Amino acid sequence: MLAVDEEMIKEEMLYDLVVVGGGPTGVNIAVEARKADLKCIVLEKGMLVNSIFHFPANMTFFSTSKNLEIVETPFISHSDKPTRKEALEYYRRIVESYQLQMKFYEEVLAIVHRGDLFNITTNKNTYQSHNVAIATGFYNVPRMLDVPGEELSKVKHYYDEAHPYVGQNVLVVGAANSACDVALETWQKGAHVTMAVREPDLYEKVKYWILPNIRNRIAEESIKAYFNTQVIAIEPKQVILNTPEGRVKIDNDFVLAMTGYKPDYPLLERLGVPISNDDLKIPLHDEYSLETPIGGMYVAGVLNAGMMTSKLFIENTRHHAKLIVNHILSKKD
Fold it and tell me: Would you state the torsion angle of the CA atoms of residues 272, 275, 277, 282, taken in this order, to the nearest 10 degrees?
């Protein structure tokens, strides 16, 4: 009886496809797998669409709801560009409608390829699968400033909302969408905002309804901006900047480092994902099937751009799910 029970347990933990990452891409792959009658489970170390949950509370997507739709399921929003709250509701409904098998707060620790199976070890269980799709994105790992004082509690690499910064001296580091959004929102709510920008100007592809506003605030000096400037040290009550005019020390209560994010390369290494040796550090994969040099292991979503994190987004990786599932089906045939 014990042997039968063990065999049943083993069969329950054997899948056609295990997806690592429960973001939009992971959900999309799981839906396509279900439509193809593949036994699939999604393993997510946080919550459903964990990255979107940690976006700023009042964030509006740059893309339209139509361009964010997956598996031909309408994304209904109150305006052309959906909000974070609407996106969370959309993905909750997708998971519920398709009855996806997903495990949350279950972190994948290792993947070992043995024969025609992958052994996937998490902090809670061990699974076996004929195929694995890695869709871990890049939002979990911020690009660090690598300066003294960055470990101070006043330094934030993620932004939630403006209220904690009312009446505070805030330094916003960065020049792209997040930095400009954060600078404007905190200033509007009563923070004293300074921006430190490494480049000579703001990023030219900042949201078209944001760019004129932030430029006007800088021009009228409501927001002080230092261009061609780097943060060289963070102190409990001040920040030291290296500007074209020399070093400047400014009073500071909080540093909001909106400097972007990158894939979790230590995790990818533990999972056995091959990475290119150049500066782009792109996970190696076939562009038509998304299969890596390890047969049966796939990479999908924004992860596939490596360090070029402004190249791929939800809207231009929606087809990844079908590429992977179709390739798995072709092998089964």
Answer: -170
Within 13 A of 100's CA, how many CA atoms are on the CB side? 30
Taking the alpha carbons of 312, 138, 76, 43 in that order, is the dihedral positive or negative? positive
CATH architecture for residues 155-257? 3-Layer(bba) Sandwich (3.50)
Averaged pLDDT for residues 61-72: 89
Among 253, 215, 247, residue whose Cα is nearest residue 231: 247
Where do the domains of the chain lie? 2-141+261-332, 155-257
- Predicted TM-score (pTM) of the model is 0.90
CB atoms within 10 A of CB 205: 11
- Residue with the bigger pLDDT between 310 and 215: it is 215
**Does residue 95 have a pLDDT over 50?**
yes
228: DSSP letter: S
Here the tokens at position 268 are 């990818």
- The dihedrals phi and psi of 296, each to the nearest 5 degrees, come to 90, -10
Same CATH fold, 155-257 and 2-141+261-332? yes
State residue 4's pLDDT score. Answer: 43
Question: Percent of the chain scored above 90 by pLDDT?
Answer: 87
Per-residue model confidence (pLDDT) at position 7: 53
Dihedral sign for Cα atoms in the order 229, 307, 21, 83 = positive
The pLDDT value given to residue 333: 73
The beta-strand segments (E) located in the chain are 14-15, 17-20, 40-43, 102-103, 108-114, 117-122, 126-129, 132-134, 155-156, 169-173, 192-196, 224-226, 230-234, 238-243, 246-251, 254-257, 297-299
At the fourth CATH level, the homologous superfamily of domain 2-141+261-332 is FAD/NAD(P)-binding domain (3.50.50.60)
